[in-house]
Write a structure and sequence with these properties.
The chain is of the alpha+beta class. Helices cover 31% and strands 35% of the residues.
Amino acid sequence: MPSPTAVRVALVLCLGLSACSPGSDTRASETAAAAAPAPAQVASADLTASNALNFHVLDYVGWNNHDIDVFRRLHTADVKVQSGAYKTEGIDQHVAALQPFWKPEALVTNHNPIVAEGEWTCMVGTLAGGTSKMVTLAKWRDGAISEEYILSNLLSPGAARPAVSGAPVATITNRSPEMKRQVGAELGWSCSMDRTADGKLVISLSKAGGTAAQQMVFVQ
C-alpha cells in the first residue's frame, strides 16, 4: 500500500495534469510539479513517520503487553541501550533487563511530547497514574532501534540545568505540520541529547515560544 505522503504527491501531480486541458496554459502543471516535494524529501518524511509509528507500537503493544516478540522485531540484534546508569548490548541483554520493570504501575498511557526527525525519535511517556514520566530517545536503522537512551529523572520547572560538555549527541526538530496528524508530533518541538563533563546523559525538550511547562529536562 502506498504511503500517505506518496498518495498526496500523486494527487498534486494529477491535479496539475488535469488543469491542462487542450489549449490551456501549461504553466498550471508546471506550478503543481514545482510545488510537489522532491523524492528525497518524501523518503525522509516517510522514514520519520514510520519510525515514530513503530515507537508507538513498541510502547503501547510491546511494553504494555509484555510482548517480547515485538521487542525483538523492533530492535536490532546488536542494539545498545542506556537506561539511567545501566547499559546493555544486544537484544538478549535488553529483554532480560527490562522484564523486572513490567509492573501495572509502569504501563505507558500517553506519549507527549513527541519529536521525530529522520533516524531519531524522542518521546516522553506518561506512566499509569499520571505522575511519572520517562523520556526515550531512539536511533533507528532499517526499521529497528539500534541505539536507545532512557531517562526518568525529570527536573522540576525552573531547576538549574546541568552543564554539558561538547556538541550535542543528537538534535532533532519537528519540521512538518503533517507529522501531527500522522504520529502526534506537534510542530515547534525539538529535542537534544547532551553529556556532562563526567559522561552523564541530559535529554532536553522544548517548544519554540512555549511556556515554562513546555521546557523539559531529564537527567541521569
